Amino acid sequence: MVAAVRQGESMRSVARRFAVSLDTVQRWISRAGNQRIDRVDFANQPPGARLPANRVSETTEDLILEIRNDLKSHSALGEYGSRVIHKELIARDITDPPAVRTIGRILERRGALDGRRRRRFPPPPRGWYLPDVASASAELDSFDIIEDLKIEEGPLVDVLTGISLHGGLPMAQPFEAQLTAKTVLTALVDHWRTVGLPAYAQFDNDNRFQGAHHHLDSLSRVMRLCLSLNVIPVFAPPREMGLQAMVESFNGRWSRVVWHRFHHPALLNLKKASERYITACRAKAPSRVGDTPTRHPFPADWALDLQKQPKGRIIYLRRANEKGAVDFLGHTFSVDPHWPHRLVRCEVDLNQNRIDFYARRRREPSVQPLLKSVTHKVPRRKFDG
After folding, report:
1. Is the C-alpha dihedral spanning 268, 269, 270, 274 positive or negative?
2. Which of 27, 167, 238, 267 is buried deepest, with most CB atoms within 10 A?
3. CA 44 to CA 11: how far, in whole Å?
4. What are the helix (H) ranges across the chain?
């Protein structure tokens, strides 16, 4: 580069030819100065001595480590940190002892610190608690309810919200007065007729989704809807927000963009604003949906029979108690005393009258050993919803 510039070529053209910045060419030209090229020192070394003049000597560093080990073994207070070592150096009449922060850096450099840095693990894949969802071979829709939004001089409003895990297909449907299981069912059917059926539908433990908690082996209206459409209902752990984070995040976006952004004098205005936002979100989603699991078409001849005995699978995600037991369907199931306070995936197989319990860990999402299998039959009874 220096030779090319000295032969008359411009610095910019030399920079383009050697694929470097203009600043790089100017720096080397400045370093060469008026010297012959064979006498220029092109070694890219920083100026100054290799070791700083104020570096603590190796003898002093060894003394610091010796004092630390001595304090660790014999100190009455059991203190042997940088501040205590600094005081000990002063007590020993050491001339110009290193500062406290310098002593800390010496201990860190020499590997003499007891504290350990927190180990960071990569996040698990989306839907890590369901193997086929984690591998992006199945889609999951998450649903939630925003409650008691007050229309000015009007009624309280509940909003049924939902979003798909991989495709990001949203829904938000406001309803006047409190939502019931029947209106939730109607809204789910309308939504799935429009966008197709997922493999899984995830809910929290609201009575409108899961049914009455005081009845044994209760299968709710929403469960029967999902099972009749070959959609596996999934219920998140009670009092845990992490597995519902995606729909909770969507709730926040909808509230910010629709509810708080505009004035809604009536429910009709809120519905129109929500429809406009959902339409825009779905128009934005096709580029993402192309790489997501296939959604199944809604069956044309489908009709819900609530009195028909459900078939299929129901999944409960539960946190084991201190004895390794989990609660759902009104029962307490003892799973594994060596798996306390851990996440368990409970798969209720209504066809085989069996419940399988799988261990789940965020740190090792691909490892899911079977902890236990029990025989359990959900009795056939009349549904009086």
Report:
1. positive
2. 167
3. 20
4. 2-6, 11-18, 22-32, 58-74, 82-91, 100-109, 131-134, 181-195, 207-210, 221-228, 245-254, 267-284, 286-289
Tens place of pLDDT per residue across the chain (385 aa): 889 999 999 999 999 999 999 999 998 898 888 888 888 877 766 666 677 778 899 999 999 999 999 999 998 988 999 999 999 999 999 988 999 999 999 999 988 888 777 778 888 898 999 999 999 999 999 999 999 999 887 889 999 999 999 989 999 999 987 889 999 999 999 999 999 999 999 999 999 999 887 789 999 999 999 999 999 999 999 988 788 999 999 999 999 999 999 999 899 999 999 999 999 988 876 655 556 888 999 999 999 999 999 999 999 999 999 999 999 999 999 999 999 999 999 999 999 999 999 999 888 888 889 999 999 999 988 887 6
CA–CA separation, 357 vs 336, rounded Å?
9
CA angle 68, 70, 72 (to 5 degrees): 65
Residue 331, strand partner residues: 328
Beta bridge partners of 232: 200
Non-local (6+) Cβ contacts of 331 within 8 A are: 216, 217, 376
Place of tokens 């539908």: 201
Contact 322, 340 (CB under 8 A): yes
Angstrom CA distances, 347 to 49, 55, 284, stand at 68, 64, 35
d(CA 251, CA 29): 60
Provide the strand spans (E) within 99-155: 140-150
Residue pair 224/188 in contact (Cβ under 8 Å)? The answer is: no
For the chain, count helices (H), then strands (E). 13, 11
What lies within 8 Å, CB to CB, of 196 at 6+ separation is 295, 296, 297, 298
Taking the CA atoms of residue 225, residue 230, residue 234 and residue 235 in that order, the dihedral angle to the nearest 10 degrees is 20
Taking the CA atoms of the chain, what radius of gyration do you get in angstroms?
Answer: 33
What tokens were used for 365?
A: 């999402």
